[in-house]
């Protein structure tokens, strides 16, 4: 039995759309931009209610990043919307110079991240975005796990002054976090207490970690599950505390091993308290067409892989 | 607007050109060619055309604001900002040195008053200017946004994304200028990458295009005044400004060779002899 339950599945991008709509009603400085993907990003409600605060950019993401930087000059809080691939790799230099280095209060909102984009294939399945964004000084990187948390994160980043990369996805996934849970940037959330191994998961992999914990429990293994929704700044204290308690760590994410959450946690542990660690992530490979479930199985990033990684890492203690 | 005092603007321009060659000479690096070519434009803009407030605030509310997209001509902008009172003229001596606010290319991180965005990687400034112009519209401001790009910079695709956007969204509180000197690092633009008929291109993108002479103070003042009179008419305005790279220093004029090279001691003396010290060197 999983320790969390759900009655509904919903896509995290809809959480973004709901959060943006709420910001439209509560914060007059919030403006939105989109590069021809209004429906995919679920931005219709904001646009309908605030047409004067929405800017359709067309298929021109580089321009969108510059526009967003410019809109901050004059006090606006721009939210850009496009796929994660076009929010990062395509516009890396624009983000680097006009947003991160220039310390502009832009919220880069990125949907369809990772393999679970599915059938569109590897051209759109970016698995390097977290790495690119976390390397930029001044950038905050957030990858929430479900509809409620994505909505809360969207609202929270409007209150945070500085550039933010908010990553979410396309598939419908279980809603298991409370609708009224306030989102604290940089604060890890301990979901399940455990003693034998810590699973640090982010984004869609948090639910997989919850399922993995149930399987491990049946095998007599006590796993701690921690939701790292903010990859940068990393909650170093929470990471070190749990790793010291359980003595071994599994990281889980829908991203390349290089540059992802696992990489950040490995660095933190190596510098402070070297601890056996296994990474559940895509191993230096592009994705391909398929259903989200098929892809997560083939590329080794589902609950089953977390269970196996936990057993491997415990054996290394 | 007050009548422009052309002789006074020309006196300022002479001092700014002195500042430029002295700054790049002092660190044996920087970009004098484009800086000298655009000096008259900058002087006209900051000392006559723009409606500026005292002091500096990042948001630039209720004042005209300017973005430099071709950030490598930072020497002219730094000199202008100092001479216009944004910071002490003496700080020009820190240009390109460690711990300076006057970075090789303009930056906000060190907090230099007058700079609102980093530039250097080309092609990004027009997008930023469009966003800032739309923020002014949302704020109900009547002030204008100015931007400067290099002509070689127009080889960057993002410029044309912004050009398309500005016309579509009727950004008519924006005056963008192209420094049309026909030179880039590897040679004349005609040899490196032909720009074609720039007037026709910008017009085809939906802009109101004016042509100007950027190295005649009276002419550039009148052109920019004319550009201002064209704002508010549902079209962005493009000022296609002919200049000569290196203008004001005879041995630097009209060649890409002085794009990013500093003068040596003898060349500096030669240059300064051609440029009267009007406001006092820093």
Automatic annotation (TrEMBL), chain A:
Question: Which InterPro entries does this one have?
Answer: PDH/Transketolase, THDP-binding, Transketo_C/PFOR_II, Transketolase-like_Pyr-bd, Transketolase_C
Q: Looking at the keywords, is Transmembrane present?
A: no
Q: Which cofactor does it need?
A: thiamine diphosphate
Q: Which residues form the Transketolase-like pyrimidine-binding domain?
A: 10-175
Keyword Magnesium set for record:
no
Tell me which domain of life the UniProt entry assigns to the organism this sequence originates from. Answer: Bacteria
Q: Which UniProt keywords apply?
A: Thiamine pyrophosphate
- Which family does the entry's similarity section mention? Belongs to the transketolase family.
PANTHER family reported in the protein's UniProt record: PYRUVATE DEHYDROGENASE E1 COMPONENT, TRANSKETOLASE-LIKE PYRIMIDINE-BINDING DOMAIN-CONTAINING PROTEIN
Name by which UniProt lists this protein? Transketolase
UniProt organism field? Roseivirga pacifica
From TrEMBL, chain B:
User: Cross-referenced Gene3D superfamilies, in alphabetical order?
Assistant: 3.40.50.970
Alphabetic keyword roster: Thiamine pyrophosphate
**Cofactor dependence:** thiamine diphosphate
The record's listing under CDD domains reads: TPP_TK
Question: Do the record's keywords include Oxidoreductase?
Answer: no
Q: Which domain of life is it from?
A: Bacteria
| Signal sequence range | none
User: Start and end of every Transketolase N-terminal domain?
Assistant: 11-270
Q: Which family does it belong to?
A: Belongs to the transketolase family.
Name assigned to this protein: Transketolase
Q: Which organism is it from?
A: Roseivirga pacifica
Top-level taxonomy:
Bacteria, Pseudomonadati, Bacteroidota, Cytophagia, Cytophagales
């Amino acid at each position: 039995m999983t320790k969390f339950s759900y009655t509904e599945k919903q896509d995290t991008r809809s959480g973004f759309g709901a959060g943006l709509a709420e910001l439209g009603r509560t914060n007059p400085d919030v403006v939105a931009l989109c590069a021809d993907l209004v429906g995919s990003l679920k931005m219709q409600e904001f646009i309908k209610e605030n047409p004067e605060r929405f800017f359709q950019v067309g298929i021109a993401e580089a321009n969108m990043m510059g526009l967003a930087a410019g809109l901050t000059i004059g006090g606006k809080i721009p939210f850009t919307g496009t796929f994660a691939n076009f929010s990062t790799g395509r516009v890396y230099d624009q983000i680097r110079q006009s947003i991160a280095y220039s310390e502009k209060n832009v919220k880069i909102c990125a949907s369809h991240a990772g393999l679970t984009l599915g059938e569109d294939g590897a051209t759109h399945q970016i698995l390097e975005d977290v790495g690119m964004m976390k390397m930029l000084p001044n950038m905050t990187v957030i990858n929430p796990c479900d509809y409620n948390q994505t909505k809360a994160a969207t609202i929270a980043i409007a209150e945070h002054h500085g550039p933010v990369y908010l990553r979410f996805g396309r598939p419908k996934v279980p809603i298991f976090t409370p609708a009224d849970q306030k989102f604290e940037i940089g604060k890890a959330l301990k979901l399940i207490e455990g003693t034998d191994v810590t699973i640090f998961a982010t984004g869609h992999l948090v639910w997989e970690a919850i399922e993995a914990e149930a399987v491990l429990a049946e095998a007599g293994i006590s796993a701690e599950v921690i939701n790292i929704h903010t990859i940068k700044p990393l909650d170093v204290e929470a990471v070190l505390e749990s790793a010291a308690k359980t003595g071994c760590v599994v990281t889980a994410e829908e991203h390349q091993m290089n540059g992802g959450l696992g990489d950040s946690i490995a660095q933190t542990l190596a510098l402070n308290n070297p601890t056996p660690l296994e990474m559940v992530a895509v191993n230096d490979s592009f994705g391909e067409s398929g259903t989200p479930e098929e892809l997560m199985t083939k590329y080794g990033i589902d609950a089953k892989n977390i269970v196996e990684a936990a057993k491997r890492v415990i054996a290394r203690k | 607007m007050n009548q422009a005092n052309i002789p006074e603007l020309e006196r300022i321009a002479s001092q700014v050109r002195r500042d430029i060659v002295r700054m790049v000479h002092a660190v044996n690096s920087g970009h004098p060619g484009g800086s000298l070519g655009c000096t008259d434009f900058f002087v006209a803009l900051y000392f006559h055309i723009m409606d500026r407030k005292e002091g500096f605030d990042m948001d630039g509310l209720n004042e005209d604001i300017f973005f430099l997209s071709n950030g490598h001509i930072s020497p002219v902008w730094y000199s202008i900002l100092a001479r216009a009172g944004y910071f002490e003229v003496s700080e020009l001596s820190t240009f390109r040195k460690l711990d300076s606010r006057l970075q090789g290319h303009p930056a906000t991180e060190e907090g230099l008053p007058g700079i609102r965005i980093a530039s250097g990687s080309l092609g990004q400034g027009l997008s930023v200017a469009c966003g800032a112009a739309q923020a002014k519209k949302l704020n109900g401001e009547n002030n204008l946004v100015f931007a400067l790009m290099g002509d070689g910079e127009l080889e960057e695709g993002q410029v044309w994304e912004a050009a398309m956007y500005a016309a579509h969204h009727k950004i008519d509180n924006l005056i963008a200028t192209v420094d049309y000197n026909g030179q880039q690092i590897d040679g004349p633009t005609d040899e490196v990458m032909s720009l074609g008929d720039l007037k026709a291109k910008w017009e085809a993108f939906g802009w109101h295009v004016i042509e100007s002479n950027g190295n005649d103070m009276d002419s550039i003042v009148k052109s920019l005044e004319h550009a201002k009179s064209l704002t508010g008419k549902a079209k962005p305005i493009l000022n296609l400004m002919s200049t000569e790279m290196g203008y004001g220093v005879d041995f630097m004029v009209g060649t890409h060779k002085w794009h990013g090279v500093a003068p040596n001691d003898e060349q500096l003396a030669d240059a300064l002899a051609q440029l009267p010290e009007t406001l006092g060197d820093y």
